[in-house]
């Protein structure tokens, strides 16, 4: 498995921006599809965005499309989530996830991931 560590969460006002980062180590990051999920208080973990190993394909949940951007830097072993125009309903713990080794495509299903970070909290509040 790969070890994942998220950072960049915090408190932001509605309409503001945050950039989440995920540092990966332990196996070949550059050949693995990656994703971001989130879990709001009292709710199930839901899909946010996913990206293929080479950044050629990226998909987003309808709720974040046009506001969030997923990206990766393979030489640095890093995954990012740029979040703009944040809304109250974006408040959640955000998790970085990796698909099994050599699985190059992304996925919107959390069952397709075998490595998870510890999460970073994002709070949107005025």
Give structural notes.
By secondary structure, the protein is mainly beta. Helices cover 0% and strands 46% of the residues. The protein contains no helices and 11 strands. The strands form 2 sheets. Strands 2, 4, 5, 6, 9, 10 and 11 form a 7-stranded mixed sheet that branches. Strands 1-3-8-7 form a 4-stranded antiparallel sheet, with no helix packed on it. The mean pLDDT is 95.
What brief labels describe this structure?
126 residues; mainly beta; seven-stranded mixed β-sheet; 11 strands; 46% strand
Low-confidence stretches: none
Counted beta strands: 11
How many DSSP H or I helices? Answer: 0
Based on CA atoms alone, the radius of gyration comes out at 13 Å
Task: Name the structural class.
Answer: mainly beta
Assembly of the depicted chains: single chain
Secondary-structure element series? EEEEEEEEEEE
What does the largest sheet look like? Answer: 7 strands, mixed
Shape: globular
CA distance, first residue to last residue: 39 Å
Helix amount: under 10%
> What is the percentage of strand-forming residues?
over 45%
Question: Please, what is the average pLDDT?
Answer: 95
